[in-house]
Each structure stands twice: as C-alpha cells, then as structure tokens.
Design brief:
Elements lengths: L3 E6 L3 H10 L5 E7 L3 H11 L3 E3 L2 H5 L6 E4 L6 H10 L3 E5 L6 H14 L3 E4 L6 H12 L5 E9 L3 H5 L16 H17 L5 E8 L5 E10 L3 E8 L7 E6 L2 E6 L6 E6 L4 E5 L10 H13 L10 H18 L7
Parallel strand pairs: 1-2, 1-4, 2-3, 4-5, 5-6, 7-10
Antiparallel strand pairs: 7-11, 8-9, 9-10, 11-12, 12-13, 13-14
Helix pairs in contact: 4-5, 5-10, 8-10
The protein binds NADP nicotinamide-adenine-dinucleotide phosphate (NAP).
The site of NADP nicotinamide-adenine-dinucleotide phosphate (NAP) has 20 residues, from helix 1.
C-alpha cells in the first residue's frame, strides 16, 4: 500500500508524540507541517523529516499532495481548523474532543459529508489491542455481563492550580480548559466503548479552579440494564490512570487505560491472567495503531471509521455537554 501523506497542524506537545510514531508506520508518512511560528515549523519539519513546511494553516490545507491533516491545536480551535481543511478537500483526523460541544461537532460532521472526506475524532485509545480485547470480553460475555465500570485520570495539584498567573492550556477558559473535555472525554468514551450506548442517568460534581474551569470532577452513570459507572478526571488531583471493569464472573484492571499497556484479568476462581502490549517495549507511544487504522480507512475510500464513528463521537460529546451543564461549566465564547 502506498503510504498515506499526512499534514500536521499545531506543533505542540502531542504533535511531537504523534509524529514520533508516524515515522515508524509503514502505512503513512509525514509530508507537511504548518505552524504559527516559522522557527517552530522549520525545527519540527527537520526533526521528523517533513518535506514541506508552511507558516499558515491555510497554505497546508491547500497543498494538493496532502491527503489527511492531523489537527493538534487546543480544542477550542478544532472546529475552525477542521472546517478549513475539509473545505479544501482534505480528510481530517482531529484530536479529542473533536468539537467542544454538540453544536460544533454537528457542524464538523456536516462539513465532512458536504465535502465527501474522511473525518475522525482522535480517540486513539480505541485502536490499542488491549482495548479490542476488553471489548471482546464484554461482547462475548466470557465473564458475564459488565456490571460496573470505574475509570480515573488525574494529574497535578490544587497548589499548582492556585499559583498566581497560572495560564496553561488546561486552566484557561478561553482555550476550553478544565478536566472534563481534556481528560473526562477518555472515561466517557471508555464507558461508551464497553456499553455501546450512552448512560440513561448522569450525576456529576466538580470543584472549580480560580480560573473558572473544573479542576476535579466525578461522575456517576446508571444504565437501565443494572450497570453503573464511576468516572473521575482532574487537573488538580494526581490519581491513577486506571480502569476497572467488574463483570458477573470476574474483573479486569487496565493500566493507563487511555493508552493501555497492561491488562490484568481476575477470574471468579481467583486465577489471574496478564496481557501486555508490545508497543511499550519498542519505544512507541501507541499512536501507530490509530495512524495505521486511519490510513487503511483512507486507502479503502472510507469517510468514517467503523471503529470510532461520527455517531459515537456525537453520543460522547452529548454526555460531556450534560456533565458540563450539571457542574456549571460554560465557556466565555459559548
Ligand atoms: N491523544 C492524546 O494523548 C493527547 C494528549 C494531549 C493532548 N491531546 C489533545 O491535543 C490537542 C493539543 O494539545 P497539546 O497538549 O499538544 O497542546 P499544546 O502543547 O499547547 O500545543 C498546541 C499547539 O496548537 C497551536 N496553537 C494555535 N493557536 C494556539 C493558541 N492560541 N494557543 C496555543 N496554541 C495554539 C500551537 O502550534 P503552532 O504555534 O505550531 O501553530 C501549539 O503548539 C488538544 O486538543 C488535546 O486535547 C491529546
């Protein structure tokens, strides 16, 4: 298969991680990058071997050799950046959360349909082998029905959060900061992955930062089939990044469930099985699974991923909208 030519917009922290894996893919290659900063663009292009470097996102969107653009700007710019790319006929892989609310995501999906291009939210967790394995266990009923899900994802401290002049992306309301959209999106997507649907009832509570975004949030979900979930996300409390799934006949614990590298299955009789992911031992971060999946979609002429569909992104953002509404987190631009 001829390598799919990627362009990258927003050369920050995660774009580096992504391109480090892109370099190792035999299905895709880094073709062009664009940055608001000429120096950063040049430096980045040199480091990862991009053939072209642009000082505006629009120029990259208009490059006829680029097949798909990975958008790694703060979430508040995703809609504008993705629409620019899709209106120029480019497929888009957009970092999570794709849109910051249901309205934005609707506009993005409509734009993909109108321009007949591939579009996917970068929920990279989905493409790890351990994610497929836990989904299979849930679907086949090997351990019985899923009865309860727990997922935590927190870092930082309230002390740092309260420091004067704190303006990192995570704390900035004008950049759609807070834990819910940045980290909670993973837990909500994880519950959705296992249940295949949104919860029937949601109760959410948050402690807010001085800057007015959620610093630590907990959510309880209830489904009509007697399943519950407890999800926590935080930019002010350093918690584990672990998911625990309780089945009728055993349980599973997943390390760093957002990029799962180890899963322990504990059967009802107490026996344990450990499943590991070999990417961790190869210096890969795990973006390669997503990159390869998206590249196959492009080469097969798909406009939507069969693994992370537009409908599911929509269900996830609707749940996040509800959580934000319950804790009173509305952004200045909404
Ligand atoms: N999949 C994952 O594991 C993962 C992890 C972390 C973050 N993310 C997602 O990736 C996105 C980017 O996160 P990040 O941590 O990489 O952000 P970051 O380090 O702050 O980088 C964002 C980049 O976006 C560009 N940008 C354009 N306008 C900007 C503005 N007004 N303010 C700040 N940056 C601006 C900048 O690139 P140029 O100046 O080069 O144009 C900047 O370097 C977020 O949506 C986040 O949710 C995903």
């Amino acid at each position: 298969m001829e390598k799919v030519k990627f362009g990258v917009i927003g050369l920050g922290r995660i774009a580096h991680e992504f391109c480090n894996d892109l370099l190792r893919s035999d299905k895709a290659m880094l073709y062009a990058v664009a940055s608001n900063s000429e120096d950063r663009g040049k430096e980045f292009a040199e480091k990862y071997g991009a053939k072209k470097v642009y000082s505006s996102y629009e120029e990259l969107a208009k490059d006829s050799d680029v097949e798909i653009i990975y958008i790694a700007t703060p979430h508040v710019f995703h809609k504008e950046n993705a629409i620019l790319c899709m209106e120029n006929g480019k497929s888009v892989l957009c970092e999570k959360p794709a849109g910051i609310n249901k309205q934005e995501l609707t506009e993005m999906i409509n734009c993909a349909k109108k321009n007949d291009v591939f579009f996917m939210e970068g929920m990279w967790t989905r493409f790890f082998p351990i994610s497929s394995q836990i989904k299979k266990i849930a679907e086949t009923g090997e351990l019985g029905k899923v009865r309860h899900i727990e997922a935590d994802f927190g870092f930082g401290s309230w002390e740092d959060a309260e420091a004067e002049g704190r303006s990192a992306r995570h704390f900035e309301p004008n950049l759609a900061g807070g834990a819910i959209l940045d980290l909670g999106v993973y837990s909500v997507a994880f519950a959705s992955w296992l249940k295949g649907k949104s919860p029937d009832r949601i109760a959410a509570f948050a402690d807010m930062t001085k800057t007015g975004v959620d610093g630590n949030t907990v959510c309880a979900f209830q489904y009509d089939d007697r399943t519950t979930a407890l999800l926590q996300c935080s930019i002010c409390v350093n918690t584990s990044i672990q998911a625990r799934i309780y089945f009728e006949r055993g349980r599973a614990e997943i390390n760093t469930f957002i990029k799962p590298d180890l899963m322990k299955i504990i059967y009802a009789d107490g026996k344990e099985e450990i499943i590991t992911d070999e990417y961790a031992s190869k210096g890969l971060r795990g973006f390669i699974y997503e990159i390869d999946h998206v590249s196959e979609c492009i080469r097969n002429g798909l406009k939507m991923s069969p693994i992370h569909s537009w409908d599911e992104s929509m269900e996830i953002i609707k749940t996040l909208d509800e959580i934000r509404s319950q804790v009173g987190l509305k952004y200045p631009f909404e």
